[in-house]
Amino acid sequence: MSDLLTTVLLVEDNPGEIGLITGALAGAPGQVFSVATANCQAAAVDRLEKGKIDVVLIDLGLPDGQGMALFERVFMMQPGILIILLCAPADEEIARLAVQRGAEDYFVKGHVDAHWLPRALHYLIERKATREALRESEARFRAMSDASPLGIFVSDAQGDCIYTNAAYHEISGLNLEQTLGTSWSMAIHPDDRQRIVIAWRDAVRGDEAFQAEVRFLRRDGSIVWTRLNAAAMRDGWTLRGRVQIVEDITARKAVEAELKQIQEDLFAEKERAQVTLNSIGDAVLTTNLQANVTYLNLVAEAMTGWSREDALGRPLAEVFRIVDGQSRKVAESPALRAMSEDRVVGLAANSMLIRRDGSEAAIEDSSAPIHNRDGKVAGAVIVFHDVSASRAMAQKMSHLAQHDFLTGLPNRLLLTERLSQAIGQAHRHRKQVGLLFLDLDYFKNINDSLGHLIGDQLLQSVAGRLASCVRNTDTVCRQGGDEFVILLAEIEQPQDAAQIAEKLLASLLTPHLIDGHELHVTLSIGISIYPNDGISADSAMQNADTAMYYAKANGRNNYQFFTSDMNTRAVQRLLVENSLRRALSKGEFELHYQPKMDIASGRMIGSEALLRWKDPKLGMIYPGQFIPVAEECGLIVPIGRWVLREACRQVQAWLAAGQPAVPVSVNISAVEFRHVDFLPSVAAILAETGLPPGYLELELTESILMHEAASSESMLTALKGMGLNLAIDDFGTGYSSLSYLNRFPIDTLKIDQSFLRDIATNADNATIVSAVIGMGQKLKQKVVAEGIETAEQLAFLRDEKCDGGQGFLFSYPVSAENFVALMNS
Length: 825
Description:
Blueprint: E1 5-11, H1 15-26, E2 32-38, H2 41-50, E3 55-59, E4 61-62, E5 65-66, H3 67-77, E6 82-87, H4 92-101, E7 105-108, H5 116-147, E8 151-156, E9 161-164, H6 166-172, H7 176-179, H8 190-205, E10 210-217, E11 223-235, E12 238-248, H9 250-279, E13 283-288, E14 293-296, H10 298-304, H11 308-311, H12 316-319, E15 321-324, H13 334-341, E16 345-346, E17 351-354, E18 360-371, E19 377-386, H14 387-402, H15 412-429, E20 432-440, H16 443-450, H17 452-467, E21 475-480, E22 483-491, H18 494-507, E23 512-514, E24 517-519, E25 523-530, H19 537-553, E26 558-561, H20 565-586, E27 589-598, E28 604-615, E29 619-621, H21 627-633, H22 636-656, E30 664-667, H23 670-674, H24 678-689, E31 696-701, H25 702-706, H26 709-721, E32 725-731, H27 738-743, E33 748-751, H28 763-778, E34 782-786, H29 791-799, E35 804-806, H30 816-824
Parallel strand pairs: 1-2, 1-3, 3-6, 6-7, 25-26, 28-30, 30-31, 31-32, 32-33, 33-34, 34-35
Antiparallel strand pairs: 4-5, 8-9, 8-12, 10-11, 11-12, 13-14, 13-19, 15-17, 16-18, 17-18, 18-19, 20-22, 20-25, 21-22, 23-24, 27-28, 27-35, 28-29
Helix pairs in contact: 3-4, 16-17, 22-24
């Protein structure tokens, strides 16, 4: 204990208490107390105003002052003084309240002991001194920490914040109240928080100091980059908490980012230059002033045969060896000239580059001087390229300009040139020239059904066979599409051309095996002879083309010589084609309907839609007069779709009007059936018109179905899946495979009318009709006979149990309006 004098003011009006307390303090060992007394509040106030008092012992029950009012009066006069209350047991609650307001402690009267009173008073004095020392220490610490530019975050052992300094508030954007009791990670940017917390936990587990660079996210949305340093605060082995030092490194980060961006920009610039030099088609080589190699791009490496690593520092003449292509003498270095003359120079013509392996390449180049900052020549750059490749490309382009890219045969341009030359030679030598115009029969069907890839391979196969049938002096040309032209130079007579034509037809008898398909194609060949069929290249070509169309009209797979009357018919055919296009756009087509009758009951069971062309000048035109032309010029597909749509529309209109409608049959041509869009177009028409599929029947001939029978089977299956009815038209006139006939999902067989014309007198036809009816019954297919015109024919069919029939005996094809009357009757 200290021997320092402690002045005590005892404010008490009870003499007994005064004597007890003063006596106890006077005899206290090791502690010197000077006791002054006051018996009322006024005296106490007067004494406090006179001089320094260290301790006030004040009774809460004075005659002129009671309870809290008395305490507060004294406390206001001397806020920093040590105040100890004396109270009766009944006032103990008030004493406790006074302690909460700033009193140091209280003693209960009647329990004051002379022995412990000095000790208790000494303890309270020491406690207050310690607390004040701690407060001063904390104030100094706070002053120092608030003066620090580093943020300080102190947490207790549980990790809750107990202190943050001004710098931390500035960095985090939070004040002291917002930080107290929170976690140190609260201010960290959400995108960084999980990573940092995991690293901090690892450091804690390893009892290691924690360091990290992390972003703080302020409430205003701004971001501050910080460096964190955290360490544990221990009392011996006991963890008291952790202190975290936070440094604002935003400015440093900005500088680092700027430096990094500058470095990246420099690298990107260098990389762009490198990529550019390595991406251009020319070779680039640089030298220093001593003509030693300093750089090669990838093209230069490839052209010279020198890698950059091997070439750097070597003399230019060793890496870039050039000689004159004719004299084989060493050529003058363009780089040396560029540096000595300080200008751009070019390489001499016919220069050859000798690669590292000794091989050669024709090159062209230019060389320019390289200048330093002072504008002085510091080296040279050579830019060169291999012109042998460009020369080869030029030759290739010339070849492509005169040859077909698919087959490699001469094209129309080269044929025209050779035809003109052949006509000139034939005129001089008094010879003839044969010109064969060839077209592949039904090639479009194969192209549409199997795809252009198969079609292209077929054209290549055909081209090879055609070329093998002619002389080396002749020219086989692909005119375009599936058309070919063969030029026979200097023949003696037209029969020579006929022999070649027969040879060509024979060469295509063998099927083409392409991608697992066995493809059969034939030729329609038109022949014109110079000078009989034209004295110019254009007239000879046009006349051969005209003759080819007549070969097609004559059944295909044959050849025809041009005759003078063909021109008249060709003009007529062109007129029909143009008129068909007009008819399709102007709506000149219409459908007539012929009923199908049940032979047993005589009632109508269906109809067949038949196309008619009502020309404004020529009147009614029947299909036989224009369908072949429509097939040749490609109009059969849009015409066929019009027929299908109109038939479906009309039957649906009858159904919607409550008319007694019957199913309608529509004939489908080979070109339509093989078209790539046939299935989608049928489905679209049914959806567009709303006709139930059961009211539509498609009629196809045997020849259509048996051509590519496997693909026909899949097509028929798809149509049947739509709910349509399927019929084979003109049955018995073509070639059928009974195995396929059984596999095809066919509903009806239609007996061709040619078998019915003389059925009463021709036993063979009668036998055929009976056989077809019997076969249909066995295959569970309906049989309908076409062309019934007499009662005898009807009687025969009724006896043979034929299901149905159609023909003039029942009704001619009639318009839609008249057909309604037939249905109603």
